[in-house]
Give the backbone structure.
Amino acid sequence: MKTALSIQALSCCYQGQTILNNLSLSVEDGEIVCLLGASGCGKTTLLKAIAGLLPLCQGSLSIRGRDIVTEHLCLPPEKRNIGMIFQDYALFPHLTVRQNIAFGLRHWKKDRIETKLKEMLSLVHLSDFSDRYPHQLSGGQQQRVAIARALASEPDLVLLDEPFSNIDTQVRQGLIQDIRRIFKAQGVTAIFVTHSREEAFAFADRMAVMNQGVIEQFGTATELYYRPSSRFVAEFLGAGSYLPVTKNDSNELCSLLGSVYADKSLCAGNDAEGVWLLRPQNVNISADKNGIGVVIDQQFMGDCCRYTVQVADHRLVVNSGFVFDVGTQVKVDIQPHEPVVFSVAS
């Protein structure tokens, strides 16, 4: 697959502080990549650096094999052929839907503009709203206009900054799936920024989890969730518990809940002592007066309950479709899975 975006050893500084530190990233043609992280991790800075809105200290950047930033070159934003979609949509309030979409096409021939307008309006299901103004549209419809405007100029890359944060929760998931369908139908290469792992899971093909200006791990949602490379990634992507284990020469993990064999590639470090990451769905509980666990907290999640179970000196987070009262004594079993173990010091 052809590389659409290549970033090598990129660093960005602001007022003497390093915001991005020797960062590299490769995005394939037609791929949707999420920059995921907490506020201040550098994800928006990276997006702006790609767009040409921030200066770089070092590094190189190319789009579809065309040099954008090198040691001796830095193309201005308008020369990069990048489409931008902002958190607040940035629509022109005095222009209609069709005028907003056509805004970047002013230098095209009239018949080509009309053809592209019809295509874009149909693509985002706004053909019947072409003469309305932004204030006459819902938030989701305004976002569709912003999408159509960004795609109309046929960019090599589309950048989205928190694109779903202003959308009502009730319609957000539907809009995410709709826009993903549009991007895939058009073969769009996109990078979007979010702090929401739920949005990242639903929208992206791959995710880059960022922390303090570097990419901690890059991969698919399932790779990062079930095989995190660090405790930071594991904890950022969802609930989990850590159970102390001892690892012997045959790579058997021994814990107070029994033993399991682990692939060496899943064990961080060569220490004999470690901590075993257990996701809530990795643990089963059942009421048992002789069980070694006690339910100490209950949280209703809608499709299941999330329990905190005390086992000796340790607390496990468990999802279950069964209802247990706080104080219930339970048997604790581990579901078969590929274990991930981190060193005690990590």
In short: The radius of gyration is 24 Å.
